[in-house]
Design a protein that fits this description.
Elements (H helix, E strand, L loop, with lengths): L2 E13 L4 H10 L3 E14 L4 E5 L6 H8 L7 E6 L8 H7 E5 L11 H11 L4 H15 L14 H13 L5 E5 L7 H18 L2 E5 L3 H7 L2 E6 L2 E7 H8 L2 E8 L4 H7 L6 E6 L2 E7 L5 H11 L2 E7 L3 H9 L8
Parallel strand pairs: 3-7, 3-8, 5-6, 6-7
Antiparallel strand pairs: 1-2, 1-4, 8-9, 10-12, 10-13, 11-12
Bound molecules: adenosine-5'-diphosphate and magnesium ion.
Magnesium ion (MG) binds next to α2.
């Protein structure tokens, strides 16, 4: 088993004291804390070579879980095994087994050339010369590292920095790769590039992938299984396809009109099967079921009532899926 989490729990304790010096002093005498349960008895098992999306709304506990699994944060309770290793008891063995990428921060040293950062990692992980050379050649080729490897991390674009970070996390051939929002802020071609690299590691090297992302495309392209966490608790754990088929029939169009559309909205209310929303005076979103309507029908319907300026299609996003799971419209079992 690549990863086992049993009753994994994290409670953050924060000092709570009244403002001002008096409050601070009182706190020293009688310390008071508020507690935040960020991760609450989380259980899962992930097999070797699986690719799993770990998703949920902001503040759900995703990053905290990943920090515990990678040994960055201590758990308040529960047990963890990564490749049979307890990450706290055997930090060194664990470091050899895992790679981590945080979209929001880099593991590269800011002020030294990227290739020097890689050399330092080589020494830290005691990567044999031949293996290092092989990996560097592969990464130069497929990650395009050659273009910027002599620059300092500080001088890289976000896309270059993310590619360098991903390469750095893979340099020691980890069996398990944790990716926390690896495509956040990247433009679409760089996102696609990152996905290809991650997919290659999973398919060709059998690297186990655990990924958090707000981008549905990341999840569709990279993950076979989806674990949903909300308020620190797992609310669903299913195959991605199962999750998708449950919301795949829902579509939406955002229609912007040349003139204010209050009256159009009123007329559309005669179709109770459509879910309508006025985004602003000129913009109506119409959600519909693909079983009963086509996008063309919906657009024509509105086109008969008013002049259309612009149209965009709304794909179901993770937030909607999670909301649905939460409202139990989707019957998902963990
Ligand atoms: N170091 C910390 N101290 C106190 N509270 C924290 C800390 N880190 C995270 N939290 C809180 O724990 C909860 C989960 O955070 P996080 O794991 O970062 O969520 P996610 O990654 O799903 O957005 C949030 O309510 C957050 O405010
Ligand atoms: Mg996070």
């Amino acid at each position: 088993m690549a990863i086992i989490a049993r009753d994994l729990t994290k409670i953050f304790k924060m000092p709570a004291h009244a403002p001002g010096i008096a409050g601070a002093l009182k706190h020293v005498v009688h310390p008071q804390y508020t507690e935040k349960v960020a991760v609450d008895h989380v259980n899962f098992e992930i097999k070797d070579g699986e690719s799993v999306a770990y998703i949920g709304p902001n503040g759900a506990g995703k990053s905290t879980t990943i920090k515990m699994l990678t040994g960055i944060l201590y758990a308040s309770g529960g047990e963890i095994e990564i490749q049979g290793v307890n990450p706290y008891k055997d930090r060194i063995a664990n470091a050899r087994n895992v790679g981590v990428v945080f979209g929001q921060r880099t593991q590269l040293w800011w002020d030294i050339p990227v290739e020097e950062s890689f050399r330092l990692l080589k020494d830290i992980y005691e990567i044999p010369d031949a293996r290092y050379k092989e990996n560097m050649e592969l990464f130069k080729e497929v990650f395009g590292l050659g273009e910027f490897i002599t620059r300092t991390a500080r001088r890289l674009s976000l896309g270059q920095r993310m590619r360098a970070d991903l390469a750095a996390s893979l340099l020691h051939d980890p069996k398990v790769l944790f990716l926390d929002e690896p495509t956040i802020g990247l433009d679409i071609t760089v996102k696609e590039n990152m996905r290809q690299l991650i997919r290659m590691m999973n398919r060709e090297r059998g690297t186990t992938i655990i990924l958090t992302s707000h981008d549905l495309q990341d999840i569709e392209d990279l993950c076979r299984r989806v674990i949903v966490i909300d308020q620190g608790r797992i609310i669903s754990d299913v195959e991605r396809e199962q999750l998708q088929s449950m919301f795949a029939h829902e579509r939406g169009v955002r229609i912007s009109l040349k003139k204010p559309g209050r009256d159009v909205y009123q007329k559309l209310l005669e179709h109770p099967e459509l879910r309508l929303e006025m985004e602003d005076a000129h913009t109506i979103t119409v959600m519909f079921d693909l079983h009963t309507h086509t996008a063309y029908e919906v657009i024509s319907l509105v086109g008969e009532l008013a002049d259309i300026r612009d149209i965009s299609v709304i794909e179901p996003d993770i937030k909607q899926v999670i909301e649905k799971i939460y409202r139990s419209e989707l019957q998902v079992n963990s």
